[in-house]
Please model this.
Amino acid sequence: MILHIVLFQFRTPWNWSARQAQEAELVTQNHPTHIDEIKGWFCGRNMTIRDIAADFVVLGLFNNTDELQSYIMHPDHQQGVKQWQALADWQVVDVELSGDHCHTSGELSLLKTV
Model:
């Protein structure tokens, strides 16, 4: 399994009060209803005010790199990319959950069993 992590940071002057930000969030929330390759999905707004904090996070689970690539190229995902590009910068991390360089503990150990 691959855990796909994306952290979004609004560019000035964008924030959650903007209709465009709310629309981008809604498209992102709805990806699992349009993209079969998604095996698990979480997205949410940051709740803390810190200089180093991102504004929004996406966590997606995919069976393998082929399914991750299909998701990346899917038209619904591309629509979300287009909307976020107007508002924010982001960073992506893709982690192979069964890989040698992935460590979990506590409740998150369940990720390795998915």
